[in-house]
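Lab notebook, design round three. We kept the backbone fixed and only want residue identities now. Task for the bench partner: fill in a sequence for the structure below.
Input structure tokens:
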């Protein structure tokens, strides 16, 4: 995304032309950035050729998942719906991992029937349920056990998943008990040790600590794991001054680990694949003046982009047309929903806006559309994929009569 003759463009298409043709709010994705992200991810870890399973929860658009599948990725799913979507997109079942703490009997049945690579279990109760269903089907099911390594990912507490107070995984003591339990079972086969310590991680050191914990536990367990699932969580730069995760140092740590343990590595990236490929185009409905600041009321709202309301996340906001006149007042960008948390960002020295101007919220490809809702009975936005000069509508704008 860049300015060409002061007009913001995504690949080779002007934002104003997109808004004119498809309306607002609209989610736009760049195919070039998607392809670059996947190739970059693969290249950084090519020394051990991991199985890369895209975290479907980060973006559930079936047409986008098809493109991701064509670029060689599998899928990490956390619900039956996500598993169905991955299969609909043509993902090979043997490249699908089913994660999550609360899989129902119906979901486990479906996953077993579809012969996916692994079901990553997170409690003894879940393993007993998998075993019961597998026994009824007279099948042997490959599973992983998710370890909680009690590692602080140094990220937002709302998206931390690897500390002992988090609901995910099991502690060391229970992990060893579960290994012994699976050895006695005729219907489950323990193939994977799984971990995932959090999201939006920008420092390689928590990953190194996580690998050290896994190393010690594998040695104590005396169990041969065919797969080590390291999860995802790799962060992106939402703001210009944010440091980037050092993939080279993470790669070195994994290679050091693999010298001791001959296992296949699985990754479950989501945000690092699709986060910066997406932008949300919105139009200014009204500018509501206030003594200390002006409210820029957009036609996009928290139902379209939930992250700021949910986490206090910040998305870089840009005008569709650039000029040099700056507002003397602070701008608070808000939506029309009846909630005080329906706001996106507060900016000083933003260029002066007028009603009907277009603005773009950047880096909305992950957890943008997938967290969207119909709150206030608002239809969901359109989604388009841009490939050079071509625009593909990958999801039509929802209509009110579909809701009512």
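Proposed sequence:
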């Amino acid at each position: 995304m860049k300015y060409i003759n002061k007009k913001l463009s995504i690949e080779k298409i002007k934002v104003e032309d997109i808004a004119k043709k498809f309306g607002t709010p609209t989610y736009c994705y760049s195919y070039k950035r998607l392809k670059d992200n996947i190739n970059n991810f693969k290249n950084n870890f090519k020394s051990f050729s991991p199985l890369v399973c895209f975290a479907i929860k980060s973006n559930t658009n079936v047409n986008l998942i098809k493109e991701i599948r064509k670029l060689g990725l599998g899928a990490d799913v956390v619900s039956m719906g996500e598993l169905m979507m991955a299969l609909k997109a043509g993902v090979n079942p043997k490249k699908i991992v089913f994660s999550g703490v609360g899989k129902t009997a119906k979901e486990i049945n479906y996953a077993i029937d579809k012969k996916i690579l692994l079901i990553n279990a997170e409690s003894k109760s879940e393993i007993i349920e998998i075993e019961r269903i597998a026994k009824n089907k007279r099948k042997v099911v490959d599973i992983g056990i998710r370890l909680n390594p009690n590692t602080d990912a140094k990220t937002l507490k709302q998206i931390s998943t690897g500390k002992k107070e988090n609901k995910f995984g099991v502690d060391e003591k229970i992990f060893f008990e579960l290994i012994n339990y699976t050895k006695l079972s005729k219907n489950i086969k323990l193939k994977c040790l799984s971990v995932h310590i959090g999201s939006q991680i920008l420092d390689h050191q928590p990953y190194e600590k996580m690998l050290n914990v896994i190393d010690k536990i594998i040695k104590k367990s005396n169990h041969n794991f065919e797969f080590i699932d390291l999860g995802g969580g790799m962060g992106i730069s939402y703001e210009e001054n944010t440091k980037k995760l050092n993939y080279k140092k993470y790669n070195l740590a994994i290679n050091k680990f693999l010298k001791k343990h001959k296992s296949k590595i699985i990754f479950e990236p989501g945000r690092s694949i699709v986060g910066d490929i997406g932008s949300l185009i919105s139009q200014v409905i009204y500018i509501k003046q206030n003594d200390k600041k002006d409210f820029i009321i957009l036609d996009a709202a928290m139902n379209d982009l939930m992250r700021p309301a949910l986490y206090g996340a910040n998305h870089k906001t840009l005008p569709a047309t650039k000029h040099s006149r700056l507002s003397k007042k602070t701008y608070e960008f808000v939506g029309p929903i009846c909630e005080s948390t329906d706001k996106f960002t507060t900016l000083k020295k933003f260029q002066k806006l007028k009603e009907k101007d277009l603005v773009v919220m950047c880096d909305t490809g992950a957890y943008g559309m997938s967290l969207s809702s119909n709150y206030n009975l608002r239809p969901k936005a359109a989604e388009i994929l841009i490939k050079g000069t071509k625009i593909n509508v990958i999801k039509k704008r929802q209509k009110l009569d579909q809701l009512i």
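Keep this in mind before ordering anything: The chain has twelve helices and 20 strands.
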